[in-house]
Amino acid sequence: MTPCPKLPNVICLMGPTASGKTALAIDLAKQRNFQLVSVDSAQVYRDMDIGTGKPDAETLIKTPHRLIDIRDPADAYSASEFRIDALREIQEITSQGDVPLLVGGTMLYFKALRDGLATMPNADPETRRAIEAKAAALGWESVHAELAAVDPVAAQRIHVNDPQRLQRALEVYRVSGKTLTKYHEEERKKPNSDNGLPFNLHFFGIQPSDRGVLHNKIRDRFLEMIRLGLVEEVQALRQRSDLNSSLPALKSVGYRQVWQYLEGQLNFEEMVDKGIIATRQLAKRQLTWLRSWEELHALGGHSSESADYILKYVDPISI
After folding, report:
1. Would you say residue 147 has pLDDT above 80?
2. In this predicted structure, what is the pLDDT of residue 37?
3. Which of 33, 110, 4 is CA-nearest to residue 315?
């Protein structure tokens, strides 16, 4: 997409979990007239603070983040809803003369904002139950294999350890007879499907050069979440009669493993190990997205050099 100089600029800061993108965004907001918008499918939920890595209350007072704490964990939140919400927030921020800075690691949300979303079948509870039953009996590998047989492109993109997206991709095919890839192809062929937005999107992605360093940060952060009370946070959620482990919010990395621990399915050490492994797998998927992202400006990490690069590339003062 070729930027239009007459349109407002929107900065999109992407990166894997634990890469320092939120800290970088906060540093940027201290230097210029940025307003932050969270792009995180877990931070939208209230009462899920520690495990989602939300900034603490003091930080949020000093540097507010939009689209945090906007849903109850019992409610679903989709990429299409995010797009509607993000467009509204961007319009409000630009109308105030400030610059939207979207920061997070939910790559699907960034894609939905940039490209829009294909019109696909609504969720079908019966089909979802059937897919979950197959996964329970034969493992998610069997679901991935079925998807690969009908939609190899989607199967290559969706990891076997990403049950939510696997389920949705197979659900779309079972309900409609049309693959997820076909829906996306049809959407791309529509005129102006990937442009026509009333602003310029500029994408910056943190891509750590040393995977081992990132893995250590992920381990240390998960252990810190446990120390800060992640188990107690999940225990409080389990006390609610309207919440269960099948809800999208509670399938989030970390919450799933702690829930299993509290139900006696894992011991403490297994919970910690599986939580760290699941977070590393999430980071790997996020980096895969970044490697294929068009017109991405790569950053090494949270540093003054990264901040200076963003500020020099699109200086909010000149907007």
Report:
1. yes
2. 98
3. 33
> Domain tally for the chain?
2
Task: Identify the three-state secondary structure at position 224.
Answer: helix
Cα–Cα distance, 103 to 40 (Å, whole number): 8
Taking CA atoms, 147 is separated from 126, 163, 174, 219, in Å, by 18, 12, 10, 32
* Domain end marker among 165, 189, 213: 189
* 118: pLDDT strictly greater than 80: no
**Do 102 and 10 touch, CB atoms closer than 8 A?**
yes
Per the domain annotation, does 21 fall within a domain?
A: yes
Q: Rounded CA gap, 237 and 239, in Å?
A: 5
- What is the Cα–Cα distance from 124 to 4, expressed in whole angstroms? 41
Question: Is residue 300 within 8 Å of residue 207, measured between CB atoms?
Answer: yes
Give the model confidence (pLDDT) of 59-78 as tens digits: 999 999 999 999 999 998 98
The percent of the chain in helix, strand and coil, each rounded to the nearest 5, is 55, 10, 35
Q: Which helix (H) or strand (E) holds 144?
A: helix 140-150
* 301/141: higher pLDDT: 141
The upper half-sphere exposure of residue 273, i.e. CA atoms within 13 Å in the direction of its Cβ, equals 5
Say if pTM beats, i.e. exceeds, 0.85: no
